[in-house]
Amino acid sequence: MIGTVLVVGASSRLGADVARDLVARGIAVRAMTRRADAPMPEGVEVVRADLDDPASLRDACAGIERMFLMSSPTSGQVTLETNAIAAAEAAGITNVVKISNIPIPGLDAGLHGNHRAIESRLAASSLTTTVLQPSFFGSVLARQRELIRRGRFVMPTGSGRIAWIDPRDIAAVAGAVLADPEPPVGALRLTGPEALDAAGVAARISTVAGREVSLLQPPIDSWQADLRSSGMDPWLVDSTVHLYEAVARGALSDVSPDVERVLGRKPRPIDDWIRDELVPLLRD
User: Whole-angstrom Cα distance, residue 17 to residue 13?
Assistant: First the structure.
């Protein structure tokens, strides 16, 4: 029987879904959050701790067997997740499942550089590690719900295709790996069942949501300026722009079999996320 799992990032939608999946499997979960008022799935123990506070991490890791590790995309991410890894090592945690991203040749800085550095730190540790490397989350579309309500969708990636992944499949894979007595070691690339270009995504939104949505593909430099003027962290703006440029060159078009290998079923198509998650948002 697997011992208690610490879910780092449990106040996020993905973290909460992982916690919920583990509870459904009968596994004890300790949900870590910085917020005292953060809503949590039923059946979990809640602990307040901060990735920037090593003392709180030591307390959070006490008595834990396995860890789910994710954090927000910030310039300090390497330090924050390294703190969690050090705490896991000191506490005798045996296994870590980390949320990362798919490596892209030439992207060695920004968010991609963060994840490669954290993966290297895990590889040098005594921990048994499974790194989940998802493609674009379907939930990225929710950030444009106001635009989509007005019949527009912005995706300046040219004809580049993305094998979008439903975040619920990421959570299901994480739960399955954390519950596995002999979890897979190394990297799992998590994608949906097909790769779509931006026009294809706009067409799927139009069909599933029952409203006409037109694709806009502004020049990348003007789009970058718009992101900056929106107040987005300049570090994250640059990371996002470089990623979209790579997508336009075909960086994330490959479809991986890893979701099906772990779950024994095909990954959900993006249509499912649009129907279940985006359409209700468009009605609000």
Answer: 6
Q: Which two tokens stand for residue 137?
A: 């989350």
In the chain, where does DSSP find H-type helix? 13-24, 54-61, 77-91, 110-123, 145-149, 167-179, 198-209, 220-229, 234-248, 258-263, 270-273, 279-283
The tens digit of pLDDT for each residue in 209-224 reads 999 999 999 999 999 9
Per-residue tokens: 226: 């718009």
Structure tokens belonging to residue 204: 């799927």
**pLDDT over 70 at 284, yes or no:** no
Taking the C-alpha atoms of residue 65 and residue 88, their distance in angstroms, rounded to an integer, is 9
Task: Give 169's strand partners.
Answer: none
Q: Alpha carbon 161 to chain centroid distance?
A: 19
165, 141 in Cβ contact below 8 A? no
Positive/negative CA dihedral, 253, 266, 258, 279: positive
Amino acid at 179: A
Token representation of residue 146: 């106001």
The pTM (predicted TM-score) of the whole model is 0.96
Q: What's the token pair of residue 237?
A: 């703006």
